[in-house]
TrEMBL record:
The keyword Transmembrane helix applies. The keyword Transmembrane applies. This is FHA domain-containing protein. Gene3D superfamilies: 1.10.530.10, 2.60.200.20. The chain crosses the membrane at residues 199-216. Residues 253-309 form a coiled coil. Keywords: Coiled coil, Membrane, Transmembrane, Transmembrane helix. InterPro entries: FHA_dom, Lysozyme-like_dom_sf, SMAD_FHA_dom_sf, Transglycosylase_SLT_dom_1.
Length: 557
């Protein structure tokens, strides 16, 4: 019974051979984050790749303004590790060469993240997987059945042992112990195989359900985002139409008023029936516009529902950074810019200008002047009358610090004067008479631009004109045009497609390199509006300038 005498030796050899053969090595990654001096600041281990960027949903989060929210990704594809540039603003560099889109990695490799001074040192690492299922079963089974190691036969090959114990056909010279162990192995394999198949099926179904649920959610989120953006621009189209209709209606009403006065003074003979017809037309148009504004209000409510759906699965933690981002998003929305299409880096840029305000006394002093003279009430009333965003309250802040006697420099187009810094030609176009000193840098009590209330009415009418025409109700484009209405900025705006989807501030700054003065002008006003939402949060002592209006609006609702 030679076979019976060698069974224990054969089983011990099975354990050693199969255990060695079934243990495989898989390559993972070790990633070291290095600062500008080459010092390692953090270290990570990954098995299935990783992403890096400024956003909290990355595997490696890097808080640096030069790093994009989603900067790069490394993943395993086609038996190699690849690195992808996720459309980052400042790019990624390997050996001082900028990567265009993707590249296969040769280890070890040092990846530089734009101009941030931060690098990722990536190198492979090896991790052992769990022992193969079959081998583990055999190893665990044999001691339980009284099989232990003895001296190993040197002349038995691995193939022969496998054939003897693990093949379907039993050897003719198999002994009792061999048959017993074979039966135990195959019985256990069969039982485990059935359980394993059931488990696999169960996990497969759960996996498919999970994948289906995630896919459905992604599709739903994508659809909600698309619907929200489409509705946003539908709203803007309607607002453009209503704003232009407002201007035409006001012009018609003014003309009719002049006609009535002329007829009353017998300077113009006109039939009363014709005046009545014109009055009815104006009344009908006002009624139509009221209906359209109700429709606009419903559309805005629906838009907010879509926005909530599109952002419902974003994990947001109540941090100062997330709160400030919410304020920035709100101000962008109120200025009629698409909050779902904020350019990469816009939030950080606004925060940069907030810091500029925090390191200067100018904002505190200007708001003190605004409060002392009750200028906010006059500005808000004028903005409401023209149907403009109330955040334009901060435009004369940037123009003059609300100083009614402010005088600008001499320019080829004239000298801007007053809190709204209007040129004489612009002021006259909107009903302001300039004095005899209009062309020189001197105060003139006869110049209506120095009258805050009159200048405010003229300034808001001018804003309404820009808002309704060239800016396509884009609040930030209005600012850019107001700042440089007579130079190439306006020309650049007018060269853009004449519709709100393609003519907005996001497209403008992406398409053109605008003058730094205009860029600063827009961001100073925007960041001041953000601060004005919660001054104390940003370290200022004044009350929110729009708070009284918000209280009045809440009571009316």
């Amino acid at each position: 019974m030679q076979d019976d005498k060698t069974v224990f030796m054969e089983l011990d050899l099975i354990k050693k051979e199969l255990y060695s053969d079934s243990t495989r090595l898989m390559t993972g990654l070790r990633v070291s984050v290095m600062d500008a001096s080459g010092k390692t600041t953090d270290e990570f281990f990954f098995k299935h790749g990783f992403t890096a960027g400024r956003s909290q949903d990355n595997d490696i989060v890097i808080q640096n303004n030069e790093v994009s929210r989603h900067h790069l990704e490394v993943k395993w594809e086609h038996e190699y590790w690849w690195i992808y540039d996720l459309n980052s603003a400042n790019g990624i560099y390997i050996h001082n060469s900028r990567l265009e889109h993707k590249s296969k990695l040769d280890f070890p490799v040092l990846v530089s993240m734009g101009d941030s001074g931060i690098s990722l040192k990536i190198q492979p690492t090896e991790q052992c997987t769990e022992t193969g299922k079959l081998t583990k079963d055999v190893i665990e089974l044999l001691p339980a059945k009284g099989v232990f190691n003895v001296n190993v036969r040197k002349d038995i090959s691995r193939e022969a042992i496998i054939a003897r114990f693990l093949t379907k056909e039993e050897a003719e010279d198999a002994g009792d112990y061999t048959r017993m162990v074979r039966a135990l192995i195959h019985e256990d394999r069969s039982s485990r195989g059935k359980r394993f198949k059931k488990a696999i099926w169960g996990l497969g179904i759960l996996f498919l359900l999970a994948v289906g649920s995630v896919a459905y959610q992604q599709v739903a989120l994508s659809n909600a985002r698309t619907l929200a953006i489409d509705m946003f621009y539908d709203i803007k189209m309607l607002e453009v139409s209503l704003s232009q209709a407002d201007i035409r209606l006001e012009e018609s009403a003014d003309l009719l008023e002049q006609t009535i006065k002329a007829a009353a003074n017998e300077k113009l003979k006109i039939k009363q029936e014709e005046i009545k017809v014109e009055q009815e037309k104006i009344l009908a148009e006002r009624k139509r516009m009221r209906q359209e504004r109700k429709k606009l209000k419903r559309m805005k409510a629906k838009y907010q529902q879509y926005v909530k759906e599109a952002t419902s699965f974003r994990l947001r933690f109540p941090t100062d950074a997330s709160y400030e981002e919410e304020l920035i998003t709100k101000v962008a929305r109120e200025f009629n810019e698409s909050e779902l299409e904020l350019p990469d880096g816009f939030v950080e840029k606004v925060k940069q200008y907030i810091r500029y305000w925090q390191h200067s006394p100018r904002l505190e002093e200007a708001i003190a002047r605004l409060e002392k003279n009750n200028y906010a009430s006059a500005i808000i009333s004028a903005l409401e009358k023209e149907g403009l965003p109330l955040y334009f309250l901060y435009l004369p802040l940037q123009e003059s610090n609300y100083d009614t006697q402010a005088i600008g420099p001499v320019t080829p187009h004239g000298v801007a004067k007053g809190a709204w810094q209007l040129l004489a030609t612009t002021g006259q176009e909107y009903g302001l008479l300039s004095g005899p000193l209009a062309a020189v840098r001197e105060y003139d009590e006869l110049d209506a631009r120095f009258d805050f209330n009159k200048a405010t009415r003229a300034g808001t009418k001018y804003l309404k004109h820009i808002y309704s025409t060239e800016a396509q109700v884009s609040g930030l484009l209005v600012m850019a045009s107001y700042n440089y209405g007579h130079n190439r900025v306006r020309d650049m705006i007018e060269k853009m497609p004449d519709n709100p989807r393609d003519r907005n501030f996001w497209k403008f700054i992406k398409q053109y390199q605008i003058p730094k003065e205009t860029y600063d002008y827009v961001f100073y006003i925007f960041s001041a509006a953000v601060i004005g939402e919660d001054p104390k949060h940003f370290g200022f002592k004044f009350n929110p300038p729009l708070s009284m209006f918000s209280m009045k609006e809440s009571k009316s609702e």
